[in-house]
Every structure is written in structure tokens, then in C-alpha cells.
Amino acid sequence: MDRELTLPTQKTVMTKADVINQIADKTGIDKADVTASVEAFFNIVKTNMANGHNIYVRGFGSFINKKRKKKIARNISRNTAIVIDEHYIPSFKPAKIFISKIKGSEKVKQLADKQ
Q: Residue 92 needs a FRET pair 20 to 30 A away by CA distance; which of 4, 64, 80, 114 works?
């Protein structure tokens, strides 16, 4: 009796839990320890960016605070002009190596063609 091998469908979205599971599987480290490490990383990034520091991870990318200038916008429902003060927003800029890996990925191209 011939049975076809069916591969599970891969999700195009990964959650933090999926990342933790993959790290635990690849390294053999307990999931609780991986979870603590991942949470600590995110907390350090958020805390340092809130304190005005940019974070550079060689080969991956940069977490930076981008400055937005003061501008005048329009409240359409009231038909009034409002002033949006100068502010900063968090941003991620991928490294060149990261960008080239994504651009050269056949899997990404296949997924893009399906949509």
C-alpha cells in the first residue's frame, strides 16, 4: 500500500512561542530558560531605547529611535487643523547581510507569488 508523504503546511507568521520552541529544539536548552532569555532581550531593547540608546546587532540590524518633525495635520471629522509635536518612534533597520539573505530566498519568492 503506497502512502504519500504529506508535509505539514508551514505558517507564514511566527509567534514568540514559535521562536522559543525553535531555539529550544536547536540548542537543547530548556524552554523555560529560553523564554527567560528572550524576554530579557526584549526588555533590554525596550528599556535602552526608552532611555535614548540605539542598539546595533552586527549581521542582523539596528534598533533605532527615529525623530519625527513637528507638523500640522487635519482632523477630518471636525475639519480642524491640529499640531502634532516633534516625537520619536522606534524603528528597525536590517543589516545588509540580512537584506541579501531575504532577497535571495527562493521560499520568500514562492510565498510572494502565491499571494
A: 114
Is 105 a member of any domain? yes
Angle between helices 16-27 and 31-50 (to 10 degrees): 130
DSSP 59-102: TTEEEEEEEE--EEEEETTTTEEEEE--EEEEEEEE-HHHHHHH
The answer to whether position 36 is within a domain reads: yes
Measure CA of the first residue to CA of the last residue in the chain; give whole Å: 36
Secondary structure of residue 16 in the 3-state scheme: helix
Q: How far apart are CA 72 and CA 82, in angstroms?
A: 6
Report how far residue 93's alpha carbon sits from residue 57's, in angstroms, rounded to the nearest whole number.
10
48-104: per-residue pLDDT in tens? 999 999 999 999 999 999 999 999 999 999 999 999 999 999 999 999 999 999 999
Q: Give the range of the structural domain holding residue 37, as residue numbers without chain letter.
A: 14-53
